[in-house]
Amino acid sequence: xxxxxxxTTAVVTGTLTQFDGSVSRGFAIFTxxxxxxxxxxxxxxLTNTPISVxxxxxxxxxxxxxxxxxxDLNPVGWTWNLRVQLDGQPDISYSFFLTGNVDIADITxxxxxxxxxxxxxVLDVRSYGVIGNGVANDTAAMLLAITAAxxxxxxxYIPDNFTIGIATGTGADSAFVNTAPMSIRFGNGAGLxxxxxxxxxxxxxxDDVTINGGIFNGNGxxxxxxxxxxxxxxxxxxxxxxxTLNGCHIKGAVxxxxxxxxxxxxNDITLDSLIIENGATGIILTAAxxxxxxxxxxxxxxxxxxxxxxxxxxxxxSGTGSGFSYDDVMVDGCYCKGNASEQSGVVSTDDLGIETFxxxxxxxxxxxxxxxxGFGISVTASEAAVVTGNIIEDSKFxxxxxxxxxxxxxxxxxxxxxxxxxxxxx
Length: 426
Fold this sequence. Notes:
Blueprint: E1 9-15, E2 26-32, E3 36-38, E4 44-47, E5 51-54, E6 60-66, E7 80-86, E8 92-96, E9 102-103, E10 122-124, E11 133-137, H1 139-151, E12 155-158, E13 163-167, E14 177-178, E15 182-186, E16 191-196, E17 202-204, E18 209-212, E19 215-217, E20 227-231, E21 240-246, E22 249-251, E23 259-264, E24 266-272, E25 275-277, E26 281-287, E27 292-298, E28 301-303, E29 313-319, E30 326-332, E31 335-337, E32 352-357, E33 362-366, E34 369-371, E35 375-382, E36 384-388, E37 391-393, E38 398-404, E39 408-411, E40 414-416, E41 420-423
Parallel strand pairs: 1-9, 10-12, 11-13, 12-15, 13-16, 14-17, 15-18, 16-19, 17-20, 18-21, 19-22, 20-23, 21-24, 22-25, 23-26, 24-27, 25-28, 26-29, 27-30, 28-31, 29-32, 30-33, 31-34, 32-35, 33-36, 34-37, 35-38, 36-39, 37-40, 38-41
Antiparallel strand pairs: 1-6, 2-5, 2-7, 3-4, 7-8
């Protein structure tokens, strides 16, 4: 992998000849003694993939390598392992510290060491055989990498432009399941893509999961039963807690009931700066147990205008009755685009830009832009509702509907080309 600017390197040179003075041909192979080397921002700059340098026709070679004494990298004080392969000769192998330009004739061999520091905190999926071309079935290799990262308490790293093919399964749950706390970070242009099955590309089934970045492509395969990303524990009404999705791009659920994100009984969830291009629903969170609270949806861009039905939702956060609901809800700075303005027939009253339903506590819906839904914003049964600074365009019914138990602030909103501006404010 190319090194980022500023990483300190040194040049290793050598001249290799046979005992009779004739030129040797072969390779000098350099391998770091550690699985990963990280920069100060915890980016992987070097893995333990061997670097093979050919020996020239004059018996010489030159290799530019990362120095092992760079205090700005993690770890520091590790070693390079050198293996010299010469035609017709036994291999020669030894380890060394690289602290400056050196010829191999002047190297002092040392025992291989992993150095000091906090140690590698990132695990790269390539170490577990992930191909990442978007065609190969990487499901098994990716699950191995997830397990290894969880056991080692490491962040899982998917390199730039890796598209990991996932066979999503056809049973009760996705075949690609995360079942323990962890963090997954995607490089630029990296992601998961469904290549078979009809379930979620990723099922998050554990507390304490953070996903940073990533393109999640349902590839037209997920059915209306779930989302491109599903978030729930399979065991009945069990709460799932402390989930964060940041900077993800979710697409490819094109069925009439297709969803970008489906969550069930999620307690303390943050969805930040997501892009969702989806068939019918961007985000749907449903409470079927007591204790659901802490929903934060911020800065998301959601386009469900390509949906084939007439009951699309941008963001839906709802309870199922019997005291099951979401408390402490905030939706701020989001853009939601629907298709109600293009429907020639009857648009369903379930066609909603932003909905919070049966929420007993505080609901804040602020600074959003909602366009092309039956209802722009619908807030029902909250103890305290704040609906301010929103822009609602092309709503076929109500731009804003609020049925609140009290402490209601509906102000500073702009309603354009709607049937009814604001209704039901308690």
